[in-house]
Amino acid sequence: MSGPHCFGKQAWPELLGEKAEVAKETIERENPSVRARFIKQGHYRTMDYRCDRVWVWTTEGQTGVVVEVPKVG
User: How many domains does the chain have?
Assistant: First the structure.
């Protein structure tokens, strides 16, 4: 669920299976108001919702591949 005050593209389903660094570049290019943050699959993350952040769940941090649809939050 995206917040009503968030702007720009909110999700990137087309990046599933993509290399993490390529995903980060794509996300930040397509929505300049967010920063992509890598998180390794199975690790915990903060649960606060932020319009300026996209979690990029990967197999091995920034060197892995995207395993969940990146979304603003």
Answer: 1
